[in-house]
Amino acid sequence: MGSSAQRLDLDRDRTVLLFFEDVEQDTLVKRDRYLRRGLRRIYHALKGGQRVSGFEVMFTLLARALERLGYQVRVNDRRLARDNPAYPVGITGYPHILKEWTLPNPAVLGPGLLDHPRLAPALMDDPRFRSYLVPCDWMRALFQKAYGARCGIWYAGLDLEQWPDYRADPKEIDFLVYDKIRWNREQREASLLDPILARLRDRGLRVEVLRYGRYGHDDYRALLRRSRAMLFLCESETQGMAYQEAMACNVPILAWVNGYWLDPQRLRFEEEPVPATSVPYFSDRCGETFSGAEDFDPALERFLTRHSSYEPRRFVSDNLSLEVSGRRYLEYYRSATR
């Protein structure tokens, strides 16, 4: 691209400047966070679970989406940003990236950063920060209370080449049960998970249970290939990559939607219930939802009756592809200079 002193033009150079920091911070010595990051990945590899943080997944998919559209992504290039002070930047990852942020550039904040706007209620008072991006509608409703109209929506896109259409593959599993129940686990196993599994098995349906965080992508992809449908059990999602990856593979979803954000940390910030959903990107093309064990049976009947008519992959292609995601981010990125 030339020397770092080059004056950038977005249309000519098609360059996006992104800044990202993962969960680790330096502690004892400068840059020792990279050592801990490597150790964390080794640990998760040995355990067979997720090897990277959710924010790193989002950042990787953002960069890939922009590159798919023909843009060059420069990561943490402070010199290039400082040499082009009017050029926009994107700031993503964990909130410590904002500590003593000195670059003068107009900035798009997110994805990532904050769990709740009360952690930094005056953040958007900084004139450099032009927009704050969250993954879905219910999160925007939460953040708009503090950040107003500058709160926008961006979600990670799915690569449809990596998540192919498995509808025509032989099926050995009627329901792949994706168990991401995180809070009040013992109570919800008794009131939700166990009764639903019993009802599926009583109907002679073949069930495979997959627990969140205890599998690798290759294992997951192999299970999706063999599954006719997914039962998705999660209190709430800000995006929900797992169920969307299933939809990309043309696996319809039967999802538990309790209607509220149940994360215990909400009580630090909110006295009233916060409306939320486990499937923030969903339509009647994708499957069915139910609110609890009490209305599971009619939802299951609707789902089985309509199973062959669902088109979840088409929904993903229209709304959640890498290209759609990249174009949405570029809208915010370009508007940062206006």
Can you tell me about this structure?
The chain is of the alpha/beta class and 338 residues long. The chain folds into two domains: 162 residues, 3-Layer(aba) Sandwich (Rossmann fold), CATH 3.40.50; 145 residues, Response regulator (Rossmann fold), CATH 3.40.50.2300. It is 36% helix and 16% strand. It has eleven helices and eleven strands. The strands form two sheets. Strands 2-1-3-4-5-6 form a six-stranded parallel beta sheet. Strands 8-7-9-10-11 form a five-stranded parallel beta sheet. Helix 6 links the parallel strand 7 and strand 8. Helix 3 packs across helix 11 and helix 8 crosses helix 10. The longest helix has 18 residues.
List keywords for this structure.
single chain; 338 residues; alpha/beta; Rossmann fold; 2 domains; 6-stranded parallel beta sheet; 36% helix
Give the topology.
Blueprint: H1 10-13, E1 15-21, H2 33-47, H3 54-68, E2 72-75, H4 78-83, E3 89-93, E4 107-112, E5 129-134, H5 137-147, E6 151-153, E7 175-180, H6 185-202, E8 207-211, H7 217-226, E9 230-234, H8 241-248, E10 253-256, E11 287-290, H9 296-306, H10 312-319, H11 322-335
Parallel strand pairs: 1-2, 1-3, 3-4, 4-5, 5-6, 7-8, 7-9, 9-10, 10-11
Largest sheet: 6 strands, parallel
Strand composition percent? 15-25%
Report helical residue fraction.
Answer: 25-40%
Helix and strand pattern: HEHHEHEEEHEEHEHEHEEHHH
> What is the straight-line distance between the termini?
25 Å
Structure annotation, total helices: 11
Write down the overall geometry: globular
What's the CATH architecture of the largest domain? 3-Layer(aba) Sandwich
Derived from helix and strand composition plus strand pairing, the structural class reads: alpha/beta
Overall pLDDT = 91
